[in-house]
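Lab notebook, bench 4. The sequencing result for the construct came back, and we need a structural model before the next group meeting so we can plan mutations. Quick request posted to the team channel:

Model the 3D structure of this chain.
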Amino acid sequence: MISSASTSDSPFSDAIQRVLFIASNVHVYKIPPLTSTKGYLAAHWTADSNKRQIFTARLRVLETAIPDSDGGESLSTEILLEDPATGQLFAGAPYTDAGAVEAALDSGRFFAVRVVGDGGRKAVLGIGFEERGEAIDFGITLQEARKVQGIEVEAGRKGMTWKKVAEKELTKEKKDFSLKEGETIHVAVGKRGRRKEEEGIMNSYEDKALGTFSIAPPPPYSLKAEVGGMMPLLPPPPSVLDVKTQRRRSRQDVPAHAASASDLGFDDGEFGEFQ
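Done. Here's the predicted structure in token form:
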């Protein structure tokens, strides 16, 4: 069994400890050394019917706040693997940097944890959660711990206490988005105003276009042509009977052939005075 250099029993009497996460059944594996720079594969741990599994532990993420001389607290976070029946510590992993816990490449339920034993000896153990939800909560807890302790956030904030981190956040320059005196905000609601503006532009364009193009006005309309306030109607076309009657009348009006001089009492001029 690997004993941790830091246990849940803090040597400081005024230290405040808080449990950030707890899982009842977490499988612990003795994993082979890492041979690839890509990362760990959980399939190698669970091969041969979980032959590499060595323990089923209770996992706790414990945060310890120790008061300092400045009036703040020095924070530390530790991952504890304990016997679920007795609560005896099996292994502990101080969470001082993001590399202390690495997620497996082929599964979201498995992690490689770097534990620290007596004398500072280090070893890497594999852990596996039975439920995916527990693994997600575990990852979120470590993410929040990194933010509080300043791990992978800002190099200048690493190791800062809660009070100092809060004071630095408050002293950050804040942007002033308030309106100055005399400033106003114009808000266009919907597309109604835009449509009116577009219609005004089109009307202006049409007026300019019509100003350069002229058409002769229509002939004046005479009011005398109106009958009872209405436009005069065209006469209907002639019927077939009317056409035949008109033709018959035109034939009767044609005069007979012209009378001759003899018919009028004159001779034909053969022996007349004009011979």
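Residues 1-8, 153-163 have pLDDT under 50 and may be disordered.
Will bring this to the meeting.
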